User: Fold this.
Amino acid sequence: MSSINDLIQTVAALREPETGCPWDIEQDHQSLAECLVDECCELLQTIDRLDMHHMEEELGDVLLQVVMHTQIAQEAGHFDFEAVCAVVNEKLVTRHPHVFGENAKLGDSDAVLKQWDEIKAEEKKRGPQQVGRFKDLPNQLPALMYAQDVYKQIQKQKMDASEVIDADGIAMTAQALADDELALGKQLFEIAAACRIKKLEPETALRRYAQTVVDELEASVEG
Assistant:
């Protein structure tokens, strides 16, 4: 743990008002948000390449972002790195009673995910309270991930979405999709390239349509 403590002390020194680094001192949570996105993307690149040597460095860069945010929070009297670790550790132990508790062992990952969701639903939620049928999906998600999460919620909650989405059309599209990752990537690339030819923005189009699905399903409940 000495290396972690060294990193925490180094970041604290960089943030020291009188003797620290001017750039680090100026940063706040909002100004560092783009850095976090950049570092996560660079880490994902090393994962795709299975470049373990480079991955070691990029994991450190992502960890640096975590330590910077916790240092800023600590300076404001909110929480510190130890508290962040304690929260996530408690969450892991609580949501894995089949490992750390007396619950029976679970046979497969589907059973684990089902139990995870059940335990999560009973926990006291931090942050804004959920409003509506859809969980609070971050707007910062890439549009494709956002659309998948929207449909996942429709499936999990067994919503009647027949007036909003075409289930038969989705089923036909699923049959037309390639089964292996490389071929599927080719199909998605061709769609992206076709959008480029037609001067369409697929990210915006998908995000707006997915949000329309959410809005219409929420409105159908309210109505």
About this structure: Residues 2-79 form a domain with the Helix Hairpins fold (CATH 1.10.287.1080). The chain has a mean pLDDT of 91. The CA atoms of residues 143 and 207 lie 5 Å apart. The two ends are 56 Å apart (CA to CA).
